[in-house]
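INFO  loader      accepted 1 record
INFO  loader      residues=317
INFO  predictor   begin
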Amino acid sequence: MNDNIIIVTIAGAVVAGTPLVLAALGEILTERSGVMNLGIEGMMLMGAVFGIAGTLATGDPYIGVVAGTIAGAGLALIHAGLVISLRVSQIVSGLGLVIVGTGLSSFIGKLPASPLTDRASVEGFHRLLPKGVADLPGIGPIVLGHDPIVYASWLLVGACSFYLFRTRTGLAVRAVGEDPATADAAGVRVGLVRYVHTVMGGALAGLGGAYLTIALTGIWQEGITAGYGWIAFAMVSFSAWRPWRALITGYVFGALTNLSFTLQLAGVAVPSDLLAALPFLLTIITLIAISARPASARGRAAPAALAVPYDRESRVL
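INFO  predictor   done
INFO  writer      dumping tokens
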């Protein structure tokens, strides 16, 4: 029963969508504080290369995950310094960090001492639950057959949703994203809130990149994220800046990225280039559809102060 194409597709979508869910969740936290981070792709690449390097160096994929998370957070800290303290254009800074992350990850992967591109695949994460439980019909592969990072992503989605919408601190974060001057007048430290949540967003992007290389591919290749960061960025709008919707959207895109495998199981021959383009085509079509419906667009409105630098000295009292 567990070989059924529907079950295999859903189970594969959960795994393939996890890096997207983590990166999109991080961007939701960042954008809710009023900072736009277009550099997700670069942060995921840094997380990916440090994740695989850490795993190869220690033989422990969890150390690789920690290394990738720190790498993503480090790049996000640079972004925060540029856009919050120096008030550089958030678009320019984000695009610049995509270039930096792409180039630096490529350089690290080709270091003469031990190029990562020449290394054998690493051993990924083991399933959290025993084989007997994970192999239960239907529910086993879909819900019970995953590694700890997948379950951690579910917990993070729940925790972030509770944090943003059920706590005073989360209310302060949303206030900073909507009207930083009013939040400042109420005693909220706008700069600190934005710094913390920008770094948190980069850390989750780095975690997503590390999981991609360790769990999904097991190897390092240049540009291995292949646009995952851009899809994650678009997912934030699709999900209306809500973590639970990002979880579902991530699994839809995960199913699309796994579509070639699904069609092979079904015996359908489709050009691989077309399948690779499907997630991006869906992104464009969905954005057009949302923009064409004013009521839908209003319901998915971004935080009012998103990408707007805040200067306390210019605040009108």
